[in-house]
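Researcher: Structure prediction, please.
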Amino acid sequence: MEEDYPGIKQRTKNGGAEIYWGDETDIRSDCQHKRNYAPKGKTPIVKLTAKRASLNMISPITNQEIVRFQIYEGSMNADRLIGFLKRLIKTAGRKVYVILDNLSVHHARVVKTWLSEHEDVIEIFYLPSYSPELNQDGYLHCDLKGGVNSGIPARSKKKLKTKYFLTRECYRGSLRA
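Model: Predicted structure follows.
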């Protein structure tokens, strides 16, 4: 990626395209991102609800901190990825370069076929295997998970989604969405 990225960036300048760093994540109500305290000599205890909720999200971010996202239930599959890429192209309004990790669905035959048919509006580049630190979107996910899992735990998908949108709204001052 260190050799490829300067070339990708130069191509965006020449062709007026936009770079997106993409990644998928899950948001869970029982995730531990909290800090706690206890009297000296006592172990801190975080009380959790037995009701668990989970949502999945794909959210590419540009170098200008513009975020596009989709919340979905179930696993990422080729049809869902293609549908998201179609919406990404439509909202971007210009050619899109997407940098993704090596999730197997990103390399699916149907995805590659679709990409070859739409190479005039979108190109995909892949990060090296096992290198999440290179994906800018991962830093956003970490911050969002910390915000979503602060305070009272969500007991339903609806409440988890509400906490997600409220947390995302808090970032609006520093993050355009």
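Model: The CA atoms of residues 100 and 126 lie 5 Å apart.
Researcher: Thanks, that helps.
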